[in-house]
Each structure stands twice: as structure tokens, then as C-alpha cells.
């Protein structure tokens, strides 16, 4: 049986290590040709190392697969367009884009400076737009294509010290839904994955307390290959009827994540003022308020 992704071409950004590398290897093993994009920066986005992407290409080719390295910057639209051009120039087609590139510059909100905010937004949110937009004319013309974007429970649920990252990841979830809606007429799909996996991106999580150390130990058991198989599925024709969704991959668990919908409404024929909102509306609604929880408190059980 021919694998649904065989003879397809995929771009994977941030594929020099961690989750991106696992996705590139998984897709190549399933027969896809892969553009391995990575600048080779540090977790904070500093420096470059062009050998990171090439090392993954070498590994794919050693296993009999097809791949090409690319070191363009997703945060710049012209540079991101070169990533897509690499796929077309090398393999003559493009079937899937996996937006995985990212950096971290964690800081409590009241201490975060504008440069820390902008750097993370540029790579995650603008980078996802840039690469996706560059691929859109190709997908539209061929009336086929799949986007897979990496969001995070930091954006879907919340985390402390990550206002920039959380905002970017929440924005990516909304961007994915808009792409799914706008591109549906061309048979183009767009979905998100919120990955739980140990990588250098979360290697900076503090371990100052026994509770923090226990959380890190749990994360270390969740390997990137668990995310890679879901990304490969979503990029393949097996997922032909799946679009506009947000999934989480956590060990051997796959979750369908909720999307914002009204929980409860309250009407007052006379209208509202601050006093009646305080005395009537809020008491009626507060039973369904969301608590100030972080991701680790919502996903509080051990991965299976």
C-alpha cells in the first residue's frame, strides 16, 4: 500500500533539533521529501549554526530519504519566502508546511522589555504567517495542501512568565482557524498541535523546588516522536476531513482542545449599569469563571 504522504514534499521549520527534527525524520521515513529549515540559533534566538539543518539532512539521507537544508529566517517575509522556494526549486512541488520554529525569552510581564516581546512574536506569530502566506499561492493553484502549526497550552490555558510566548501561541491558534476558513474553498487544511515534549525549548524550566523538579521529570518522559506522528498524520491525506482543529499530544495521549464559545448569557430588559452588573450579572456568571490556572495545573496527571 502506498503511504498517503509518499512522494509528497514538506517544509518543516525549526527542524534542526527537538520536535522539528523528530517531525522531519518521521515524515522522511514515511516517504516525504523534506525541506529542513533551521537557523541554528540558541533557545533565545541568538547566533546561527548552519550545520544544525544539514546534520538532520545527512541523517535522513543516510536512511535512504530525501531532504535539503535551508537556513532562512522565518521572521522575515522575504527570507521565509526563500524557504518555500527551496521546496519548489529542489523538489518541484509543495504539499505540507509544518510551522515549528520558535524561541523563548521568558520574563515576568512587569519586567519584560519591548525587545523580548517583539523577538518572540516575530519568530512564532509573524514567522507562522510568513511561511504560510508564502505557500498559499502554491496550495491555492494546485487546490491541495496542509498546514500544521505549533501552538501551546501556554497560550491556550496560560503560564507565568511567558506573556510574549503565550500571546504568540494563542495568536497562532486563531491564525490557523482563519487559514482553515479562508483556504477551505481550495481544499487546503490548517490545524494546530499543542505539543508536550522534552526539548531545549522547555529545558529552561526552573527546578528550584521538588514540585518543579517532578514536573520536569514528567516532561522528560514525553519524547518528540510522539508529536511527530500526529504532525505526519495531519500533513497526510489520512486527515483529508480534518481542518480548523487544535490537538494536544502528550506522551501516548492525544487531546482535542476546546475553542472559545459562549458559556452562559444573562439578559436584563432594562439594560445594565455598573451597579446591576455587580449585583446581578457577575453573581450569575461567576460560577463558570475560569480560575487563574497554569498549564501544569490543568494537565495535572502523569502522562500515559
UniProtKB/TrEMBL annotation:
This is 3-hydroxyacyl-CoA dehydrogenase. SMART domains: PKS_KR (SM00822). Belongs to the short-chain dehydrogenases/reductases (SDR) family. It comes from Salinisphaera orenii MK-B5. PROSITE patterns: ADH_SHORT (PS00061). InterPro entries: KR_dom (IPR057326), NAD(P)-bd_dom_sf (IPR036291), Peroxisomal_Beta-Oxidation (IPR051687), Sc_DH/Rdtase_CS (IPR020904), SDR_fam (IPR002347). Residues 8-204 form the Ketoreductase domain. It holds the Pfam family adh_short. It comes from the Bacteria.
Amino acid at each position: 500500500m502506498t503511504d498517503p504522504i509518499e512522494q509528497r514534499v514538506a517544509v518543516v521549520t525549526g527542524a534542526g533539533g527537538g520536535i522539528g527534527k523528530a517531525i522531519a525524520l518521521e515524515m522522511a521515513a514515511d516517504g516525504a521529501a523534506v525541506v529542513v529549515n533551521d537557523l541554528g540559533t540558541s533557545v533565545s534566538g541568538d547566533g546561527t549554526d548552519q550545520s544544525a539543518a544539514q546534520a538532520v539532512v545527512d541523517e535522513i539521507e543516510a536512511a535512504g530519504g530525501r531532504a535539503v537544508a535551508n537556513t532562512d529566517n522565518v521572521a522575515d517575509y522575504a527570507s521565509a519566502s526563500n524557504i518555500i522556494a527551496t521546496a519548489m526549486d529542489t523538489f518541484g512541488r509543495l504539499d505540507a508546511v509544518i510551522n515549528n520554529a520558535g524561541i523563548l525569552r521568558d520574563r515576568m510581564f512587569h519586567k519584560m522589555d519591548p525587545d523580548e516581546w517583539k523577538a518572540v512574536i516575530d519568530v512564532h506569530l509573524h514567522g507562522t504567517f510568513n511561511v504560510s502566506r508564502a505557500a498559499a499561492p502554491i496550495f491555492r493553484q494546485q487546490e491541495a495542501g496542509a498546514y500544521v502549526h505549533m501552538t501551546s497550552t501556554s497560550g491556550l490555558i496560560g503560564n507565568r512568565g511567558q506573556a510574549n510566548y503565550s500571546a504568540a501561541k494563542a495568536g497562532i491558534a486563531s491564525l490557523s482557524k482563519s487559514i482553515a476558513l479562508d483556504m477551505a474553498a481550495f481544499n487546503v487544511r490548517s490545524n494546530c498541535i499543542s505539543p508536550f515534549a522534552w526539548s531545549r525549548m522547555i529545558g529552561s524550566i526552573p527546578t528550584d523546588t521538588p514540585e518543579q523538579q517532578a514536573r520536569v521529570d514528567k516532561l522528560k518522559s514525553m519524547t518528540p516522536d510522539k508529536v511527530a506522528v500526529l504532525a505526519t498524520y495531519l500533513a497526510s491525506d489520512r486527515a483529508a476531513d480534518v481542518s480548523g482543529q487544535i490537538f494536544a499530544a502528550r506522551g501516548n495521549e492525544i487531546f482535542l482542545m476546546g475553542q472559545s464559545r459562549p458559556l452562559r448569557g444573562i439578559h436584563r430588559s432594562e439594560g445594565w449599569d455598573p451597579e446591576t452588573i455587580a449585583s446581578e450579572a457577575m453573581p450569575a456568571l461567576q460560577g463558570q469563571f475560569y480560575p487563574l490556572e497554569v498549564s501544569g495545573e490543568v494537565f495535572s496527571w502523569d502522562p500515559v
